[in-house]
Amino acid sequence: MYEEIAAKKFKELQNKDDYLILAIESSCDETSAAVTRGRDVLSLVIASQIEIHKRFGGVVPEIASRNHVSAIRNTVDEALKQANVSLSDISAVAVTYGAGLLGALLVGVSYAKALAYAMNVPLIKVNHVRGHISANYIADKSLEPPYLCLLASGGHTAIVEVTGYDDVKVIGTTQDDAVGEAFDKVARVLGLPYPGGPEIEKLAKDGKPTIDFPKGFHNKNTLDFSYSGLKTSVINYMHTAAQKGEAVNKADVACSFQKSAVGVMTENVEKALLKTGLKTVVIAGGVASNKHLREEMEKVGKKRGVNVIYPPLKLCTDNAAMIGACAYNLIKEGKGRASLDLDASASVSLE
Fold this sequence. Notes:
The chain has about 350 residues and is an alpha/beta fold.
């Protein structure tokens, strides 16, 4: 009976704009819930676990899952409260089903399925990575495909050609480490706390790019990335200095690493813009919050005469608002509705 009712309501929503989505995100170490209307965010609540995992130097999956269980009900209740709505006002429930930590995802998926069933509303499954891309629809409500996306997060680094709300093509991707992973690993070598990205950015402000660290695939005819060599170069630099008993200016190391890491991204974006002829480029993912990356992308925009868009800082990290925005676009396309046998998936293809 539920599936029939949900299917009918889903079809009715396709031609509507003024309805509310309750979105849930639990793919890693943030439990998040949001209430969205189209591209408008009525509320966004994020329960971060950063302080819990900081002592371990990274996210511990089992601990993350247990904390999602503890936090999810209060997070959803708070999102409804801040939006000044009740469950009876919600027309659809959207949830991240992958990619991410399997146990963490299961918490959100299970809770979302229970809510959708109890409320007799459609359940919308959202790809986490596409959610990050969709954060830009909130940042710029006039944004429409086609456009180019630089995806830069802890687990993904790619250049994506977005030709439709549900049509994307990866034209460049990392062959080893993602840029966010490289930031975290280099931060650990420098003795900086987790998460590494913001800490390196902070330290780099006091340094100068005096060290010539390599750029993966630099000046090569490819849009792919490689961060393994850059990460290893920083590690070797630090170890060599330690063996020789030489002092290291960690701020200079951070600044030099950041320059190389960002440099290959902006170079590839520029090549991709020339190749595709697109006039808009967006940045998505946690690394999109990096100020140096934003500044360098702005330079590319001015040089090539293209519009550069990036989300506000709160929407760069994992959050439910981007999941709600993505779900809205999926519904308009008549896609994304899931049945109650929806399962979480640690790995989901972007395309």
